[in-house]
Automatic annotation (TrEMBL):
Gene3D superfamilies: 3.10.20.30, 3.30.465.10, [2Fe-2S]-binding domain (1.10.150.120), CO dehydrogenase flavoprotein, C-terminal domain (3.30.390.50), Uridine Diphospho-n-acetylenolpyruvylglucosamine Reductase, domain 2 (3.30.43.10). This is Xanthine dehydrogenase small subunit. Its EC number is 1.17.1.4. PROSITE patterns: 2FE2S_FER_1 (PS00197), FAD_PCMH (PS51387). It comes from Acetobacter sacchari. It holds the Pfam family CO_deh_flav_C.
Amino acid sequence: MRDAIRFWLGDELITLRDVGPTVTALDWLRETRGRKGTKEGCNEGDCGACTILVVRLSPEDGALQWNAVNACIQFLPMLDGAQVYTVEDLRDPSGALHPVQAAMVEQHGSQCGFCTPGFVMSMVAFRKRVASMDRSPTDAEIDDALAGNLCRCTGYAPIVRAMQQALDAGPDRFDTIEADIAQRLSALMDGLGASLEGAKGRVTTPASSDELAAVMAATPHARIVAGATDVGLWVTKLGRALPHVVFIGQTPDLNRIERTEAGVTLGAAVTWSRAEDALCALQPGMRETIRRIGARPVRNSGTVCGNIANGSPIGDGPPLLIAAGAQLLLRRGDVRRRIPLESFFIDYGVQDRAPSEFVEGVFIPLPEPGTRFAGYKVSKRFDQDISAVMAGFSLRIECGVVNDVRLAFGGMAGTPKRAAAAEAALLGRPWDEAALEKAREALAQDFTPLSDMRASAWYRLEVARNLLTRFHAETTGGTRVSVYTSATEAVDA
Ligand SMILES: Cc1cc2nc3c(=O)[nH]c(=O)nc-3n(C[C@H](O)[C@H](O)[C@H](O)COP(=O)(O)OP(=O)(O)OC[C@H]3O[C@@H](n4cnc5c(N)ncnc54)[C@H](O)[C@@H]3O)c2cc1C
Ligand code: FES
Ligand code: FES
């Protein structure tokens, strides 16, 4: 195992031997490297002022992946093996502005300028993503690329115009050095595992799931961190100290997406951004919810399994995945087990996971043909908001009656949970108004939601009932629900 963290910052190879497990990339860039173009706004992944570019080789095809990431909740050791660029790296060596910077100037996309470096970094990442697409992006995709960046003074129209202008502009300074970047990154991939212990704490980056199992067996109290989009806030907002962190974000076998005839398995390190297409190939009805999990920089770091493992009752992933019949893959030493995802959540803050056991992945089965599926996220804002109620519904009708139904909710109890009484009210009955009414009534047996700042108990129950009505309307003549036909033909009906 290496005794150092290594990454490229611009054209400099950084090697760190004594690094605190929870020092943030933002603090290090600003305080140690003087890169003060990267700003601190919220320090919790919400505003995008701290956005940097993290470039890696895709585990799928080895192509360069240019990801916008929130430096304020990215721990420094997580940059191991990456090429990192900040706003200071954008200008061409000739002194010319990057096409995105030039477009922001020409379209008057900046006033006070505090948010501008963050916007520009998200825009550069989006330009790179669009370059790998075989079509022009939609307006919604442009909005989505900018949804993680907040601006208080300019207004978004000039910034969107700058994005559109930059998409039509010529190459940037990175296009000519992509082969060099790929070569640098391949060299760094050689020997991924690292273990560092110093005055500031202990950092482990396991090179495989086997190594992770061994580390957790030896040090069960170590904290696993995948994307740090939850754990980051424990440090920046709650001031928690984590003396030993095991970073799994770059562990190769945990980064796999495996597609078989039975379904899809996502390794524990697969981010929401990478999982999106694989999940939506199975259930197109997941796309709208996934696009509303944080914003792009959060989804570029945050993992599907981290969303499950944190056990939150208001995570958006579990209701979707429970409705899809997902199974959780757990591992402790050499012992592996597979459980229905819903049974992982025992009570508020209590999950079915033993000390030293970890989540190795999640399996989502191929749906039966004819399965109707929908995900509904209800929150005060469209983008970047926590759900008041989250629902995932799946239903199949055979011979005129409901013969399979999974109704899963978040925000309705101390855990993500299936609505057992409402499901029972539907099973074996025609999917008609009478059955719907019974299921709506039964939701009151299933849930006694809480009132909090996001919603009252009454509102939550009413919304849950109304989402069921919406699902009924959409499956009996409406438009949005997805109907599964086959892996290549799944469609939004
Ligand atoms: C600005 C912002 C917006 C957000 N918006 C949303 C949203 O809209 N919807 C939503 O659901 N969430 C949201 N989140 C929360 C977060 O992004 C998700 O929960 C994310 O999926 C967590 O994944 P992670 O890899 O970052 O987890 P981490 O922070 O790395 O870990 C989370 C927890 O899981 C544990 N853990 C991680 N991996 C494993 C493993 N393999 N085995 C055992 N334990 C493990 C960690 O120890 C920790 O307890 C948001 C977060 C931020 C900062
Ligand atoms: S400082 Fe606001 S997202 Fe990082
Ligand atoms: S230009 Fe002032 S916050 Fe955006």
